[in-house]
Specification:
The chain is built from ten helices and twelve strands. It is α/β, with parallel strands linked by helices. A six-stranded mixed sheet has the order 3-2-1-4-5-12. Strand 7 and strand 8 form a beta hairpin. Helix 4 crosses helix 10, helix 7 packs across helix 9 and helix 8 runs antiparallel to helix 9. The longest helix is centred in the middle third of the chain and has 25 residues. The radius of gyration is 19 Å and the shape is globular.
Length: about 325
C-alpha cells in the first residue's frame, strides 16, 4: 500500500509519499513547493485572493503528483497560517471548490499529538519519558508522555514567522531592547507549560521541524547528506551563541551562515529565541533532533489505525473543518 500526506505550512507545501510496510512509512518520494503564505498575510492575519489562488494551485499540483506516484488519496492539511486566519472557512471552501481537494485544519493540540507519535516511533521506548518541541511558522507545539501518546500536548502562538512579523520587522537587525521584549513574550506564553515539563522530568527531549534542524546545522550538527540515522544534538549553549550570531546580522545576510536557508533566514533569529528560552525554562541542556514530525505522524496513523483516524465521511464535504483531539483519538488510548 502506498500512502501520502500534503502539508500546507507558512512557507511551503510539502508532499510525502511512502510505502506502508513493516509498520513504518518507508519514504518513496518527497517534494516541496515554495508558497510563502506568511508573506501574503494581510491585516488581522487574513489571506487574500492572491494567496488563496496560489494555495489552491499548489495543493492541486501536489495531489496530482501523489497520484502519479501511485498513492492512495492523500491526507491534505494546513497548519497555523490557515488555521488562525479569520477567513479560514472561506479559504477551505474556496480550495475545495477550485480543486476538489478536501483540505483539513488540525487543532494545534492534535498537531502536537501527531508529532509526539512520530518522535516516539523514531526514538523508541528506550527514550523513556519524552518531551517534544516543534517550532512552526505560526505556532510552537509542546508535548510530553511516557507511552505511545502524550499525556500533555499544547500549541502556543510562538511560531518563528509570527514573532518575526509582529516584533522584528521595524529594525533590521533588531535592537537589544526588541530582543528582550520578544523574550518576555516567550517567557509569558511558556511559563506554565515549562513548569509542567520540569515537573514531569523527561528523560529525553526531542526537537522537530525545519527551524530546529537549520539551527542544529548552524550549531554544528551533521548535514542531511549523512542520512537520517546520524545522531544530531542541539545544545542550549549552542543556541545562545547562535542568537548572538543571528542577531548581529540583517535578515538578508543570515543565509550566509552555515545551515540557514534564504527562505528561512528572516525568521531564524526568532526561532532561536523560542528554542533557547524554552530549553532554559524547562531545564533542558540538550535536544535530540528528530527527522520525523507531523507528516510521519499522520502516515503512522494511517498504517497503524487504518481508517479509524480519518475524519468521518461527511466532514470531507462539509466545510469548515477543524479536527479535534477527540475526533482523531487513537485506538487503544
Amino acid at each position: 500500500m502506498r500512502i501520502s500526506v500534503i502539508d500546507v505550512g507558512s512557507n511551503t507545501v510539502r508532499l510525502a509519499v511512502a510505502d506502508a510496510r513493516g509498520g513504518a512509512p518507508l519514504p518513496v518520494h518527497t517534494s516541496k513547493q515554495r508558497l510563502r503564505l506568511s508573506q501574503l498575510v494581510g491585516p488581522e492575519r487574513r489571506l487574500g485572493p492572491q494567496a488563496v489562488e496560489r494555495l489552491s494551485e499548489s495543493v492541486a499540483s501536489a495531489w496530482s503528483e501523489a497520484a502519479r506516484w501511485g498513492s492512495e488519496e492523500p491526507f491534505a492539511f494546513a497548519t497555523a497560517v490557515v488555521r488562525d486566519a479569520p477567513n479560514r472557512d472561506e479559504i477551505l471552501r474556496t480550495v475545495r471548490e477550485e480543486t476538489q481537494v478536501p483540505l483539513h485544519v488540525l487543532a494545534g493540540e492534535v498537531e502536537a499529538e501527531l508529532t509526539f507519535l512520530a518522535a516516539r516511533r523514531w526514538m523508541g521506548w528506550r527514550a523513556g519519558p519524552l518531551a517534544v518541541l516543534d517550532i512552526g511558522g505560526g505556532s510552537l507545539e509542546v508535548a510530553f508522555g511516557r507511552g505511545r501518546l502524550p499525556d500533555f500536548a499544547v500549541s502556543l502562538p510562538l511560531g518563528a514567522n509570527r514573532l518575526t512579523r509582529e516584533h522584528m520587522q521595524a529594525q533590521d537587525p533588531p535592537t537589544r531592547d526588541t530582543l528582550k521584549h520578544v523574550r518576555r513574550r516567550i517567557r509569558h506564553e511558556l511559563r506554565d507549560v515549562a513548569a509542567r515539563i520540569q515537573w514531569e522530568g523527561p528523560l529525553t527531549a526531542v526537537a522537530t521541524s525545519r527551524t530546529f534542524s537549520q539551527l542544529g546545522r548552524l550549531c554544528g550538527a551533521p548535514a542531511g547528506r549523512h542520512g537520517p540515522f546520524v545522531d544530531r544534538q542541539l545544545s542550549r549553549r549552542g543556541l545562545r551563541e547562535a542568537i548572538d550570531r543571528l542577531g548581529a546580522l540583517p535578515a538578508a545576510r543570515r543565509a550566509e551562515l552555515h545551515g540557514i536557508s534564504a527562505p528561512r533566514a528572516s525568521q531564524a533569529l526568532a526561532g532561536a529565541l523560542v528554542g533557547h528560552t524554552a530549553m532554559k525554562l524547562m531545564g533542558l541542556d540538550t535536544l535530540t533532533l528528530c527527522p520525523w514530525a507531523i507528516r510521519e505522524g499522520i502516515l503512522l496513523r494511517r498504517i497503524e489505525d487504518q481508517d479509524s483516524w480519518r475524519p468521518t465521511p461527511h466532514l470531507h464535504h462539509t466545510l469548515p473543518v477543524q479536527l479535534t483531539g477527540r475526533q482523531l483519538q487513537l485506538a487503544g488510548r
